[in-house]
Amino acid sequence: MNFNTFVFILLLVSLTAKQAYGQKQRDIDSLKRELEKPHQHDTTQVQVLLAISMNYQSFQTDSSIAYAQASLEKAAAIHSVKGQADALLQIGRLKRDQNNDADALSTMFTALELYRKISDHVQIANALNDISIIYATSGDYEKSLEYFKQALEIFQQTGDEKGESYALNNIGLIYQELKDEEMAKRYFLQSLKIKEKRQDLYGISRGYTNLGSIAENNGKWEESLYYYFKADSLYEKTNDIKAQATNFIAIARVINSQGKLKESKQYSMLALEKAKEVKSLSSMLAAYKQLSTVEETQGNYKSSLAYQKRYNEIADSLNNENHRANLDELKAKFNFEEQERKIAFLKKEQELQEAVVERKNIVTYALAGGMILLMVIIGLLFYAYRTTRSKRDILAQKNIEIETRNDELDKLNKEKDRFFSILSHDLKGPLSSLKGLSYLLTMSKDALTPDELLQLRSKIDTSLDNLTALINNILEWSMATSQKREWSFVKIDTLELIQKNISLYQNIAESKGVNLVYEQQEACYAYADYHAVDTVIRNLLSNSIKYSHANKDVVIGTRKAEEKVFISVKDEGVGMAEEIQNDLFTLKVNASRPGTNNEKGTGLGLMLCMELMKENKGSIQVKSKAGEGSEFIISIPECV
User: Fold this and answer.
1) Which 3 state secondary structure label does DSSP give 155?
2) Measuring CA to CA, how many Å separate 306 from each of 275, 452, 483?
3) What is the pLDDT of residue 55?
4) For 1-196, CATH number?
5) Which pTM was predicted?
6) What is the C-alpha separation between 26 and 270, in angstroms, rounded?
7) Which of 25, 315, 541, 612 sits CB 3.0–4.6 Å from 532 for a disulfide?
8) How far apart are CA 429 and CA 216, in angstroms?
């Protein structure tokens, strides 16, 4: 295992600050005394068991696993989701330390899901951080980097500066493994800045070690030693013996690269001494490896081989050592104590329950008689109240219904008056025209030339067409509003429908000098009542021709979007003011206006279009400015 990989694993193990070995043992003793206190709350037991596990983690893995498992079982028993998640995350870390990455990853993912279930954002970030470590140690740096950055984002959002500093440090380590020394150093410095602000000596010392590693990788021996010695002074202060041993190995390696073999051996021996002091097999492994290298460089092959042999022995022990017996003993001890407490609790609970049941029976019988009498009295009073209230409610409801119907009748009368006003106005135009033309034909038929007779006939046809259109619109509006019409929704080819109406109005448009243009972006099929859509397009096309000037275009376009078909009819005619647009689809005003050639029209056409669009789950809107023309757009469901 090279130094970079070793430091990588060392620094990523947890976001929890490490304590010195002696202090940890004192903390463990204190926590065990807390655990043995009587009447301890279940939630507190979960937390204390987990705290003991975390304190054991750096030097007694088997004990750490036992207490973490005990914490998990207790949390599950009291249905504490957070307690279970915390214990699972700790168990995952321990499995990871044992190089059981598959089980560790599965366990950590379970913890992560539980944290997400209760929206514990800080612990979500911690779980992501630990999951990232497994990806990193297995060589999947890209995935590891992704999880680390997710954790960093959560730490920053929640204002957790400690978590942020460690996440930044871990991202730097990933970039270092990816050989991007510049990015690695940038993240290390960002992390170190936060740790210095927080006076986090443990974090600062590791930051110096990382910067020393960057310098070492680039062959900057003096700079790397500067950072390693700064880290060593902090390890000395915090009594972080295991980290100090690792740092001595790094110093020995750099000094060895400088050719100072004697000093390199001294630091390697110091590292071995520190590793033995805290019984850190991994640190001892690294120290023996470095000593073997130094002796080999000096030509002391026998000593080098001896150190290599010790290295191999420890490597084998790391793979084969089994602490299962101690784990089972701790689990059995905890289960026995838990069972004893459970039996005592159940016994007291049973005695209390029996006393409660006895008192409850007495009270129940006494209350039952009183409740029956009270219910009879309440029932009689409620019946009398309900009868009176019901009559008042019925009367009030009738008054409301009468008032509502009066309002509706008043509204209908007003709409009827407006309707007949519009109808009489629109009928008057073509009828007056027909009457005048008929009189002219009667009085002057002998004096009229054939061409004048043809013109007269054309005007009569136009008046009849206007009258027919008005009657058709009245019938359509009547059917649409009477709720008697049966709608037939079918697939409509908009191309065919629009071309049919263009053909219908082509002669009228040409006689006025108006050019009909059809712009179809793509094939569009609508799902609606064919006759209704045909009526709407016919009215809109007629209006656009009516209000267009000569030598101008009327453009019909189709498009589809969001499962709807949009059909637009745009002219370059007279347009209309905003106040006219607001009431264009209602009976509030007579919207009929003469065309550019003084054509007459029906004021009911647009109101009819609105009603037909509503019944076909569509809509109609207008865009217009006075003097600039108008554009009417209808939308109807697309046939999919």
Assistant:
1) helix
2) 18, 129, 102
3) 85
4) 1.25.40.10
5) 0.44
6) 26
7) 612
8) 100
Q: At what angle do helices 530-546 and 494-512 cross, to 10 degrees?
A: 20
Map residue 625 onto helix, strand or coil.
strand
Tell me if residue 42 falls in helix, strand or coil: helix
Per-block mean pLDDT, blocks of 10 residues, the chain (640 long): 37 40 73 78 88 81 89 93 94 83 87 93 90 84 88 91 91 91 93 92 89 91 92 85 87 90 90 82 84 88 89 72 36 36 56 70 72 81 77 81 74 54 53 61 69 68 63 61 75 93 90 90 88 92 91 93 94 88 71 68 73 91 91 93
CA distance 410 to 338: 81
Q: What pLDDT shows up at residue 111?
A: 94
How far is 179 from 161, CA to CA, in rounded Å? 27
User: For position 11, what pLDDT does the model report?
Assistant: 38
For residues 534 and 501, the answer to whether their CB atoms sit within 8 Å is: yes
Calpha distance 97→91 (Å, rounded): 10
CA distance 249 to 254: 9
Give the start-end residues of each E strand in 483-638. 489-493, 515-520, 525-529, 553-561, 564-571, 619-625, 629-637
How far is residue 268's CA from residue 287's CA, in Å, rounded to a whole number? 6
Measured distance CA(376)–CA(168) in Å, rounded: 74
Count CB neighbours of 79 within 10 A: 8
Radius of gyration of the chain, Cα coordinates, nearest whole angstrom: 46
Distance CA 216, CA 250 (A): 9
Q: Does domain 487-637 have CATH number 1.10.3210.10?
A: no
Residue 136: what pLDDT? 85
**Predicted pLDDT at 79:** 93
C-alpha distances in Å from residue 618, one per residue of 98, 487, 526, 563, 611: 66, 14, 11, 12, 10
**CA geometry: angle 321, 324, 330, nearest 5 deg:** 135
Q: Which residues contact 40 (CB under 8 A, 6 or more apart)?
A: 34, 48
Q: Which two tokens stand for residue 630?
A: 């108008």
What pLDDT is stored for residue 277 in this prediction? 82
Q: What is the pLDDT of residue 336?
A: 37
Separation CA 104–CA 111 (nearest Å): 11
Rounded to whole angstroms, how far apart are CA atoms 287 and 525? 79
Sorted by where each begins, the domain ranges of the chain are: 1-196, 199-317, 487-637
Q: Which of 254, 246, 294, 292 is nearest to 270 (CA)?
A: 246
1-196 and 199-317 share one fold: yes
Q: Please answer whether residues 65 and 103 qualify as being in contact, where contact means their C-beta atoms are separated by less than 8 angstroms.
A: no
CATH architecture for the domain at 199-317? Alpha Horseshoe (1.25)
The span from the CA of 59 to the CA of 240, in Å, is: 12
C-alpha 374/C-alpha 376 separation (Å) is 5
Query: Phi/psi at 176 (nearest 5 deg)?
Result: -65, -40
**Residues 6+ away with beta carbon under 8 Å from 560:** 522, 524, 566, 638
Location of structure tokens 């019988």: 365
Amino acid making up residue 321 = E
